[in-house]
Amino acid sequence: MGILELKDVSLKINGKQILSGLNVDFWEGHVHAVVGPNGAGKSTLAYTIMGLEGYRNIDGEIIFEGEPIKDLNVTERARKGITLAWQEPARYEGLSVKKFLMASGKKVDVEDILEKVGLGVEYAERAVDKTLSGGERKKIELASILAMKPKLVMLDEPDSGIDVASLEKIFEAIKMLKEEGTTVILITHSLAVLKQAEHAFLMCNGMIVDKGRVEKIIPFFEGKCVPCRHKNMPELNGKEEDEDGC
Fold first, then answer.
1. Are 186 and 193 in contact (CB under 8 A)?
2. φ, ψ at 99 (rounded to 5°)
3. Is the pLDDT score of 167 beyond 90?
4. First vs last C-alpha separation in the chain
């Protein structure tokens, strides 16, 4: 069953076409991945779903749990259970990690949540500010998502700034979210992150050019393209290659 549907969604920013006719169905309770080269429109897709300022003037429709949300702002979408974890997590000067994790208003075992993302209880009284590394802030942001228990979460480059040992904790947290029924969308260009998903979409030039099980999308990471309308699509004997990709 689809919890989130994009129907012919297109977006222009400053006159430039960023997303083009996207028709995507994200299944409830599954882990999805959206992959593609830099500039493909992956993060823009996440910002559009979240309804961030500057990303709401779309053509097409976004349906969440059977209801259109195109006209809802980011706060209203968050109240419906949609959340986004940034590639570069925000800082909150003067706010402790404990208060940050309890901001959802739900009952939270702070020590347990921190342990799940690989952080000790001593972090509870730390401030969510520049004294934390990017990797630490990313773990704390993920801990806050575990505490919120959203219906749908988008993780933008969840491995960015994370060491190998910490990455395993991130992957464990993704599994926890799935076990609790949360639909997860991983925005990534990492093969390791892709392998945490069950289903994947390949984006290029603002379009979905392929989709299917993870195994079907892995060849992208081996330098193999699929046919698309990108201006840099290679030519073979003067004609665009339209069967095997590039």
1. yes
2. -65, -35
3. no
4. 34
